[in-house]
Amino acid sequence: MPNQSNLSASTDLSTLSSDSDIGTVLQLRWKRIEDRGAKALVEFDKPLGDLLGKLRAALEEGQKQIPSKTLNHYNVGDICRRRRSEAERLSRDWDIEVSHLDGKTVGELAASGKWSSSTALFAAVDKPEREAKASEKKAAKEAAKAEAEAEEAAEAEAAAKPMTADEIAFEAMVLCSVNRISDADFIAALKKQITFISEAA
Question: pLDDT class for 65, splitting at 50, 70, 90?
Fold first, then answer.
């Protein structure tokens, strides 16, 4: 097993038994990736995800995040949070088959070299689900718009439709009730108005 001082970015992780040493090598690889802009799904992200999975499995009940102290202890605290999160998913989903990508597993896709980053890989893996959600959202929006337009049309039609004698009488009786006018007083006033209109005609 290599000594701590002999560890480098190119050290074979399979020769290491200490998680701390693995973290040190990953930290060295991360620096190289940052410097060169390289992407290494199999050599970097997968082992990083494996290590993070171990650390998460060791969390106490109720803990949701791996403490920064733990990440720093294993020398992976300097790796950006998004990269760590995607690496953990890559490790977790490694053997899952992706039906719309020729039924290959996530691991096989990662090793194919077609995708240079986990972000790009998962964008391809999640594409059908993402498109389905977008379609559902669009359909829901269009349905809501159609319903609103139907309600507006119904209201416009109701407003344009002449009121019947019964509807007018009902509205009048409601107003009388609100204003505490008796039926007798209302009928008397109505007869008076009819007389005036008849005489004016």
Answer: very high
Look at 82-91, 98-107, 190-199 and tell me which has the smallest mean pLDDT: 190-199
Question: Cβ atoms within 10 A of the Cβ of 15, count?
Answer: 10
Highest mean pLDDT among 85-89, 150-154, 175-179: 85-89
**pTM across the whole model:** 0.63
**Residue 91 covered by a domain:** yes
Looking at the 3D structure of the chain, how many domains does it have? 2
The residue segments making up the domain with residue 186 are 163-201
